[in-house]
């Protein structure tokens, strides 16, 4: 206890400590924030450069369509139609499959001859490209291609496909 009458000098000297020796947590947090910031900058820089590389690669050169010899293409596709006819007559191909094959053959013929992606177009898109011969034929093929039963005569369809290919302008 302190004695109020004691007049001896009091030792009030305090030993100084290093300012951060007891505060390790703020140093660790500050270092973590700095490291995270540097990592974020590196990742951002990498992603930014990667996007520009992808954009440069993604720009293909324009495709220049070079029409093929019409006579040779007509012979090639008439031979494909003859194969469909032979498979249908032998029973190796049913009505639906025959019409699907005929549709694909006519569409690919138009594509190879004109460059129009007829193989990917709907009936309306074919009409929009003014390939009326083909769009009319494809419309006739829709019922046998997608219906369970059809009244469409397959031999007439084969002859119609032949006519479109052989009379193409």
State the helical fraction. Answer: 55-70%
Tell me about the biggest sheet? none
Structural class: mainly alpha
Q: In total, how many domains does the architecture comprise?
A: 2
Count the strands?
0
What proportion of the residues form beta strands (DSSP E)?
under 5%
Q: How far is the first residue's CA from the last residue's CA? A: 121 Å
H/E element order: HHHHHH
Number of helices: 6
Task: Give the radius of gyration.
Answer: 41 Å
Q: Quick recap of the structure?
A:
The protein is mostly helical.
Supply the key terms:
169 residues; mainly alpha; 6 helices
Give the secondary structure arrangement, pairings included.
Blueprint: H1 24-58, H2 70-90, H3 95-114, H4 123-128, H5 132-146, H6 154-166
Helix pairs in contact: 2-3, 2-6, 3-5, 3-6, 5-6
